[in-house]
Amino acid sequence: QAKEGGRGGYRFFSPEMNQKLRERRALEADLRVALAQGGFRLAYQPQVNLDTGAVIGAEALLRWERPGIGNMPPDRFISVAEETGLIGPIGTWALQEACREACTWPGQLTIAVNVSPVQFRQSGLYEAVVAALESSGLPPERLELEITEGVLLNDTEETLATLHRLRELGVKIAMDDFGTGYSSLGYLQKFPFDKVKIDRSFVRHLGGDRSAEAIVRAVVGMSHALGVHTIAEGVETLLQADMLRQKGCEEVQGFMFGKPMNASDFVALLGSEEVP
Ligand code: C2E
Ligand code: MG
Ligand code: MG
Ligand code: MG
């Protein structure tokens, strides 16, 4: 259909492609407005110690009520934010907001913030982390950055240097979605992570699928051998939690222990916890 363009010229985009481009541009424009006008918020999902049942912290998850459309899950806009570079300022906002909120929580509770590979590669991530810590007063030890294997794919020298600098600050680094990327094992050796997050795709099949069990056992064993502890994501059932405990996984996060919730609900949950 490329020949049917107007004025005898060539048309490079099919109507469907034009439609996609228009939607993408509209999404980008709406993201800019949300960024400028405070349209994003964070939801907090509890992270729980599997032995004691105590809440040890939360993961901050981006939420966006898109005007005229409704709730847009991050999976549907992060990629456009990455392509347009908007992930930088959006990620900086998330860091600021998460640190400010976590500072009001009691004791040693940690806050985990996701950092996209693109955000990581843009200059200024280190400075953004320092600024968020300074303006909130949150001790660095209570901030954890969740990165995926994508972060380690390119720019290895510079990336590793940044990770080491962040760690020297006292910030914790967790490997998110572990097992879904490429040559995962190698990455664990390349950089000393503080925590490995076992991906939901393995947790989901625990109890049904023997190979999922074998993978979880292997990931926990290998992490422990490297001196790293593990957290499982997407835990929905008691059976999954039991199997994870059996295999030596220390922490869990999932709908069984709490869905992502607003800040005040998270604080209320802390208040309702029984003190052992
Ligand atoms: P993630 O970091 O792996 O976050 C976990 C996702 O699993 C969240 O989805 C969470 O709501 C969902 N989840 C947690 N427990 C369960 C469970 O028991 N069952 C099921 N079915 N799902 C569960 P969400 O909030 O839609 O976020 C999706 C992804 O978007 C995140 O995956 C993360 O990669 C990205 N994301 C979210 N917030 C941010 C952010 O502030 N910055 C960046 N760069 N990425 C973010
Ligand atoms: Mg995460
Ligand atoms: Mg994850
Ligand atoms: Mg995930």
Automatic annotation (TrEMBL):
Keyword Glycosyltransferase in annotation: no
Keywords noted in UniProt: Membrane, Transmembrane, Transmembrane helix
Domain of life according to the entry: Bacteria
Start and end residues of each EAL domain: 24-274
Protein name: EAL domain-containing protein
Organism in which the protein naturally occurs: Teichococcus vastitatis
